[in-house]
Request: fold
Amino acid sequence: MATHQVRRRHTAFVGGLAIVALCLGFTASPATAAPPAPVDYVALGDSYTAGTGAGGLYADAVCWRSVGGYVNVVAETGRVDLLANGACHGALLFPVLGVPIPSVSEQIGSLGSNLAAAELVSITAGANDIGSGDALVACLTQTLVVCQAAVNNAMSLLPALELSLAAIYDDIADAAPNATIAVMGYPRLFDPVNGVPIISVEHQNEVNRAVDALNRTIEAAVKASDANAVFVDVTKRFRGHAVNSAEPWIVLVPAPVPPFDRLPDANFHPNPAGHQAYAAALLSTIKPAQLAKQ
Reply:
């Protein structure tokens, strides 16, 4: 009987301590969780992913890349482990006879082991495949009629581009089965309302019309593919920071000046602030910490 009473008093004592601990906040808790490990990251695509506009452009064989592009900005956060950036200035989606620049398809093929390990892949691509540069030059230098014709010609290629983009996203998914694919859009280049009239408002609207249509096509291709892909729209982030705005995040300089040592290659690409905006758009949309390690 005495033993039983002692046990009962001991149990009550322990229970009382538990209540006191709860009141004082001394509850048992798991050890502080370690920060999530950085996810393995690979980048692919054209000049926007290659970092054009961020600083000095340098040549790596026929694949041009720049220092300080959005890929580097993302890597510097410590939230990703950058395995490789295979993007090249001027890259098309698929190889074309006579074009030595490695296409996105060839980039995928050359980064097999890195992609197999990747948990995050980012890509910008598609603008070169519809001749966006030619349309832009036409709108910068020619009459409105010529500009409109060039934009309409580029837009006529969008249905085929959607199919090609969807195929590329599926190819990336096959090569990187554990990865989330961040498909980056393109910013509007001009602010027709508040910007400096570098070209007429009508010309600016034509350029923006082409960019908007290209972004809709990219987003549609993401939805049409079977890949684990997410479209990352950067249009809102660049609002108020067009090439002709008071605080541009897009390069437009008339002659080679440091840090832009190759022109006009850097023109109409994100400047360092623009690449920071791209990095922020990627990280806020994808949130690497939420990508589970396999």
About this structure: Residues 67 and 127 are 21 Å apart (CA to CA).
